[in-house]
Amino acid sequence: MATILQLTDFHLYADAAGKIKGVATRDSFQAVFHAACKHYPQAQTMLLGGDLAQDEALVTYQWLADFLRQHPFRYMVTPGNHCKLERLYEGLESQVCVHAGRMRSMVEGEWHIIGLNTHVRGRVGGALSADELAWLDQQLALGGYALIAMHHHPFAIGSRWLDEIALRNADDFWRVVRRHDHVKGIVVGHVHQQLDIEVHGIHCMATPSTCIQFRPNMPTFALDTQSPGYRWIELADDGLLTTGVERVEGFIPPDLNDTSEY
């Protein structure tokens, strides 16, 4: 049995006091991170689900690397839309080895964890390049129960505005995945809310942000009253995947009616 943690959508700033919708994102991230460490001390792998730096600044990624270096996890990053890839690589490479394909594929017992890059420069929505899809197919061909991690969601979540900025070539993704019957789970970020559904017999999961949350099933942007959180995933040697979401208290935006851009 292996325990995996996923934290996503930190939206950090170089300024330690930086806020989104009144929530200090560095404070909320650290509260969620420490709660995950406290409640799941057996976990050795953490998935960082994208949108790590709201300001996309090198110094922000460097602060995050310094923070992560204090905790002995194996880290995997799945880049999101709020991302300057070259800065992310430079800032985090020494800690999480995200460049040139390193730490994008891990083995945990009988499981193969595969991280995908859905980032598209200048776009909020995501896509998988032809090379990325071919690499996914090659990785899945290696066998073992598979858990796929990515930022943008390849399945509908029921909020029109979020489904419009999902993975735009989701059909190509599913054509690859459905060639391999040992894919057991797909976990994403991006949508700032919890979701657990089954698609093509696969457990598909979305994880809350470590900062603000989006109200589910809304046609346009709306803030939720939920607190930040993280996801734990237990991978049994017989292929059983068990998962759940835990939240910390507080960090609710003071004005839930604020629909301005951020």
Number of strands: 13
CATH homologous superfamily (4th level) name: Metallo-dependent phosphatases
Which architecture does the CATH hierarchy give at level 2? 4-Layer Sandwich
Count, helices: 6
Beta percentage is: 15-25%
Mean pLDDT: 93
- Return Rg in Å: 17 Å
Which sheet architecture does the biggest sheet show? 6 strands, mixed
What string gives the helices and strands in order? EEEHEHEHEEHEHHEEEEE
Helix-strand makeup class: alpha/beta
Distance between the termini: 40 Å
CATH classification, class level = Alpha Beta
Helix content: 10-25%
Described by the principal axes of the CA atoms, the overall outline is globular
